[in-house]
Design goal:
Elements (H helix, E strand, L loop, with lengths): L1 H6 L3 H19 L11 H12 L6 H60 L3 H11 L3 H15 L4 H28 L4 H10 L9 E7 L7 E2 H8 L3 E7 L6 E2 L5 E2 L4 E6 L1 H11 E3 L4 H8 L5 E6 L15 H5 L2 E7 L2 E4 L11 E6 L1 H11 L3 H4 L4 H15 L15 H16 L11 H59 L5 H11 L3 H8 L6 H28 L1
Antiparallel strand pairs: 1-6, 1-7, 2-5, 3-4, 3-6, 8-11, 9-10, 9-11
Helix pairs in contact: 2-3, 3-17, 4-5, 4-16, 4-17, 4-18, 4-20, 5-6, 5-7, 5-17, 5-20, 6-20, 7-17, 15-16, 17-18, 18-19, 18-20
Length: 555
């Protein structure tokens, strides 16, 4: 019976081998050598070992497991980085993609130079390059171009890919580690520096008290002040001399020497203070203490009602209907200014100031039920995967290229996930997922992908190496490492990229989800994932096209 589990072909055998590969690989990934761990990459090498000793799985089953695992991983990454993707694209997306294109061009140059110097067929080296950059669509593109052009297949393309892939993974991770050592980067200190320099936009709002000294504002209503200043801030409470603090609304009149407590975007705080008057020391706790003499209380309310998902905060008219003031919105641990145009999403926590009864009414409107958030939103997830597969299969015709180009089963789901996480609420799609569920989905996906790749490469891996393929492994290592080291130095010294953006961009330029998983597990922020997603679509497209061009040039 045990022999059937190890070397059979039953469903039990498939599950047993996959589970053993992932469990043993994950266990080895916790081992650190010199303070460095390869993490989930060990699953790949365990799979190669088991495949070599005959514990393989049917190729069609492995193909499904590999692609489905990659889709789960890529989709969860897209959902994670989607909200910050478009702002990143506006800020430095062109530079990130320029660096990625540089990695691709240097890799093509290295491949051509190896072919010229060693005399190795450029056809075979195209397969080696696809493995070195861990890009399966490039492999498929090269194979299909050769078949359509020559009328027959070329086995060396797939073999080159198989022997170069494992060291392509480890080579990229080693190159990233080398860059970290060369630039002497401490991830924690780098993260703190970026926060101080406001490179990482936490959106954590300022809470400021000012005394009104601008005579132009005497007698103005709050909505008039907001119109005149046109900045992102919310007036929460107003304290007039000799009176109790009052909850501010659009019609509240402000006078000279009134004390005003407001919440604002850090980028707008200085301008708001300068316009209103002068800042005074009166922390929020003091306002809360003053409020004890009135009926005002402050509570956090959870958005859990699906009908609220995607609605703008201003459209709910909470001030007019319930006489409450929303001062800020916490989303995934980040505080956002409660501007009227802010679109609310399931899982948001609103800080609401008002009377106890009015706050209870608002809680009833928004849901405020933790139990509802524990229910998984399966339908939107699989709708996203369905649409992602469709997008990935759409062919793009380019002048001069005989075959259409596709984004594939990785690029399509990534793009759809980014779009759904950002705009899904407008179509009443609830994409909320708990952090633990998202991490579980991502880890299961990458683990299945690595196990399948390792098991599929295992049977021919050693024989290819001993038959002269070890030279291809070396060539693949050069194609992996040289572009990363060169463009990594350029990115740091010329483009002045921070460490996290640089690592994510370099991983994206190699379309390497394993390296991304390695980086994100050692990063205190999501900049690597955002950068990876910023360059991934264009990189995937160029990788597929470049493989076709190299095959056509070789024959």
């Amino acid at each position: 019976m045990f022999s059937e589990l190890l070397f059979g072909s039953s469903t039990a055998h498939i599950i047993f081998i996959l589970a053993a590969t992932i469990a043993l690989g994950t266990l080895l990934g916790k081992v650190k050598i010199g303070g460095i761990s390869l993490g989930v990459t060990w699953i790949l090498f365990v799979g190669i070992a088991l495949g070599h000793f005959g514990m393989g799985i049917d190729p069609q089953v492995l193909g499904f497991v590999k692609e489905f695992g990659l889709i789960l991983f890529i989709y969860s990454v897209g959902m994670q980085v989607g909200p910050g993707f478009f702002s990143s694209l506006k800020q430095n997306g062109l530079k990130l993609n320029a660096l990625s294109i540089g990695v691709i061009l240097v890799g093509i140059l290295v491949t051509c130079l190896i072919s010229m110097i060693s005399g190795t067929s450029l056809v075979s080296l195209t397969g080696v390059m696809a493995g070195a950059v861990t890009n399966t669509p490039a492999l498929g593109s090269a194979q299909q171009t050769y078949l359509d052009t020559m009328g027959s297949s070329e086995p060396s393309i797939a073999l080159g890919y198989a022997v170069a892939y494992p060291l392509g993974v480890i080579g990229l991770i080693l190159a990233l580690i080398v860059l970290r050592r060369v630039f002497r980067v401490d991830p924690v200190q780098e993260d703190e520096r970026l926060h101080k320099e406001h490179v990482i936009e936490t959106h954590d709002p300022d809470r400021i008290t000012v005394e009104i000294t601008n005579p132009q504002l005497d007698g103005k209503r709050v909505w008039e002040v907001a119109r005149l200043l046109n900045r992102n801030f919310v007036v929460s409470r107003v304290l007039k001399a000799g009176a109790e603090p009052i909850l501010a609304d659009a019609q509240t009149v402000i006078g000279l020497h009134d004390k005003v407590f407001f919440v604002s975007d850090p980028r707008d705080t200085e301008a708001v203070v300068a316009f209103l008057g002068r800042q005074i020391e009166m922390p929020q706790e003091a306002w809360d203490e003053e409020s004890k003499n009135t009926e005002l209380v402050s509570r956090r309310i959870l958005v859990t009602r699906p009908s609220i998902n995607g609605k703008q905060l201003g459209a709910l008219q909470l001030r007019n209907h319930f006489k409450v003031n929303v001062t800020r919105v916490n989303r995934s641990g980040l505080d956002l200014v409660a501007s009227p145009s802010l679109e609310l999403l399931l899982g948001d926590r609103l800080t609401v100031v008002g009377t106890e009864s009015s706050i209870n009414d608002v809680a009833g409107l928004l849901g405020n039920s933790q139990k509802r958030l524990r229910e998984p939103n399966i339908i939107p997830m699989f709708i996203g995967i369905l649409l992602g597969v469709l997008v990935g299969m759409i062919p793009f015709h380019i002048s001069g290229i005989p075959l259409p180009v596709k984004l594939g089963l990785a690029g399509g789901p990534l793009i759809v996930a980014i779009l759904l996480s950002r705009f899904g609420a407008r179509f009443h799609l609830v994409t909320y997922t708990t952090i633990s569920a998202s991490l579980m989905l991502r880890e299961i996906g990458i683990s299945l992908f690595l196990a399948a790749v390792g098991l599929s490469a295992g049977p021919e891996f050693v024989s290819t190496l001993t038959g002269g393929g070890y030279v291809w492994v070396f060539y693949g290592f050069l194609i992996t490492v040289i572009p990363i080291l060169i463009m990594g130095i350029v990115g740091r010294l010329v483009f002045k990229f921070n460490y996290f953006a640089l690592m994510g961009t370099l991983s994206g330029s190699m379309t390497n989800p394993i390296a991304l998983s390695f980086i994100t597990s050692n990063s205190p922020n999501d900049i690597p994932a955002v950068s990876y997603s910023t360059v991934y679509p264009l990189t995937m497209f160029l990788r597929v096209v470049s493989a076709q061009i190299l095959i056509l040039a070789a024959i």
